[in-house]
Amino acid sequence: SSQLSSLPLQILLYVNGIYYIFYFLATLAMIIYKSQVFSYPDDFLAPDLAVLFLMAILEVPRLYLGFKGNLTEAEAPLGLSLGLTVGSVVLCVYLLLWQTYVLWADVLLNALLLSAYGLESGLKVTAIAAFVS
Amino acid sequence: PADTPDAAQARARRAPAPVTDVAKLCVCDLLVAQCDTNCCCDPDCSAEDFSLFTTCSVPVVTGDSQLCSQKAAVYSLDVDANPPERIFKLIDQVNPSIFCIHATNYKEAVYLKSPEIPTAENFDQFLDKFGGATFSAEPDSWNLDTDAQNPPDANETYRYEYGVPVQTEDAFLRLPSPVVSSWCSDANPAGFLVNQATKCIRSVSVEKCDSIQALSMLFYINSSILAVPKSSQMVNITVQSIVVQSQNGMRTLLNSSDVLRLPMVLDGLCINAVLGVNYHITHTDTGEIIEAAAAFVLGAISKEALSIEQSFEVSFTQENTQPVPFSGNPGYVVGLPVRAGFWPQGYPFPAGFLSNKHNQLTILQSTSTQDCLAAQGARAPVLFGYNMVSGCKLRITAAMKCQPLAQTLLDVLKGQSFPEYVASFGNSQAQDVLDWVPITQLHISEQMISNTLQSSCQIPVSLGIEVKWTKYGSLVNPQARIVNVTATITTTTLKQLPSGRERIIPVTSSVVFTDISSPAEPSYKAWPTINIKLPFDFFYPFV
């Protein structure tokens, strides 16, 4: 067909956006819970919160560029989105492995997000290949 | 050989490593190299010991239960086997909660902090903090230098509260007192509104007379007191009076107390050495100090004396009040004197009471001679809650006249100024008329049944004071309140003696305290009543 935009990528980006809102609120609530129940000094609390907010700031342009690139069938925004995804993956791995307290719920949420990122990246690469050729 | 002392030092510096293996942890293993009873995890116990146990006092040893999965050592006794044997299982305990800790990157999260070991570098810091005879959890609160870090708010008004150390220019008002041993320690602060009296021993020598600071008056009055904490308003400590104590203990009050007398050596004695200081601090009812005065007792130290005893006292008075010592606040405290006074004569009644010299109710005090007429003047204060009996013997000769004898005995029994009112609470003020209970005076005369002549002489032989008190206030903290005081004088007939004969009659006085508090009765809340009124036309068609 003449349509090059990838439908699975679009669906995944949409679902990723909704899931990310839930993920951000849940992780923030869990950090607050941890700071009340466990001993969580400020030196350890500050980096964890900074990483979470940085990830939220990265997510907005990442998703926007992904939508735009896929719908307009342009490879430049999609490529930029792929680059931002790498940054998000790094921050997600930090929250999965190097947070001060990693709860079981943290492991589930981050694993899910990582798998979504992985699938997205694969679909973006396929889409870019389709647009370029 | 050169590195073994270093290695030993390095070993000594590290605290013993914490044991974290659950298989090796045993909380009930208290005796070394001996088996603890019912302790299933004790490595010193053999199989025969286990067969004698009845139960396992420590069934499970685990780490922090908030971890998702952790090792647990489970100990149990198999009582069905013959002989009973201990079962030890190492299992993985799983926390099913979704918020269990999967991993932590913060070591102190699940382990206790290791204590700091003193080394050559941090030893001085530890010595400063903990090296004195006493150390407080917050030593910085007394150090005024820390105010530079948080400057006080302009709108915040400080004031002294009960127990807060009274601050002076450099540190705080010192009340030297014995700490641990009887030697004086100068680090004891005087607390606001805490009336204290201390006695301690200071080591002195005549040679160092003028160099020992604590012997000079200047040491006690040179720094002014801050009116409120952390303020710049100062109150100078004035010298109220100076009393000089001679070598044999006689004290003389000096006329002029404005001259500062510093210790100096004279004729081999160290004179003007401070033997006692009495601080009197006046404050307002908002916790601000407005006046401070010190009364000194100076004495002389001889060459042979190696130490002297110093006594210090601090008392706080609110401005515009007379310092009346309370016998309780508000209820009477057992052992404190019962306060009493008179209603001064005059019409209309002026406000307030006058009290006898010591504001107390007093009773005759028994002396060793037991002679009533010789014992005039010796009286003991009536202490709340303490029933007392005292007495003396009266030798009656034929030459004694009845009326003067009766009057003398009444003086002996009642004292020079027997009060008319007794304070009902320990802290009753003289202005509150209703807080004072009148003393009811009763006269009972013992009369021989056969002798009914009223004209014969009646002399008082006993005084019985009965104080009725009740518990007042809350059930949790009842306060003692005097409700009724009755003084009963019993008189007896004095028969005329033939000349040359003499009789000895006993004279007694007693004080009895009776608790008339009624038992507390429980009261129940009234059951709620349902207040329903049917409307006027409820039964319309039928009525």
UniProtKB/TrEMBL annotation, chain A:
How is this protein positioned relative to the membrane? Answer: Multi-pass membrane protein
Where in or outside the cell it occurs: the entry states: Cell projection, Cilium; Membrane
User: What top-level branch of life does the organism fall under?
Assistant: Eukaryota
Please list the GO biological process terms of this entry. Answer: non-motile cilium assembly
The principal location of this protein is: other
Give Gene Ontology CC terms: ciliary transition zone; membrane
- Descriptive protein name: TMM80 protein
Q: Which InterPro entries match?
A: Uncharacterised_TM-17
Q: Where are the transmembrane segments?
A: 12-33, 45-65, 77-96
Report keywords, A-Z. Cell projection, Membrane, Transmembrane, Transmembrane helix
State the organism named in the record: Myiagra hebetior
Q: Keyword Membrane: yes or no?
A: yes
From TrEMBL, chain B:
Q: Which Gene Ontology cellular component terms are annotated? A: MKS complex
Gene Ontology biological process terms in this record: cilium assembly; protein localization to ciliary transition zone
- Which residues does the UniProt record annotate as the domain Tectonic-1-3 N-terminal? 14-123
- InterPro entries for the chain: TCTN1-3, TCTN1-3_dom, TCTN1-3_N
Record's keyword terms, sorted: Cilium biogenesis/degradation, Glycoprotein, Signal
Signal as a keyword of this entry, yes or no, is: yes
**Does the record's keyword annotation contain Signal?**
yes
Q: One Pfam match, by short name?
A: TCTN_DUF1619
**Tectonic-1-3 domain location:** 159-318, 328-515
Q: How does it assemble?
A: Part of the tectonic-like complex (also named B9 complex).
Q: Which family does it belong to?
A: Belongs to the tectonic family.
What's this protein's name?
Answer: TECT1 protein
Organism of derivation: Myiagra hebetior
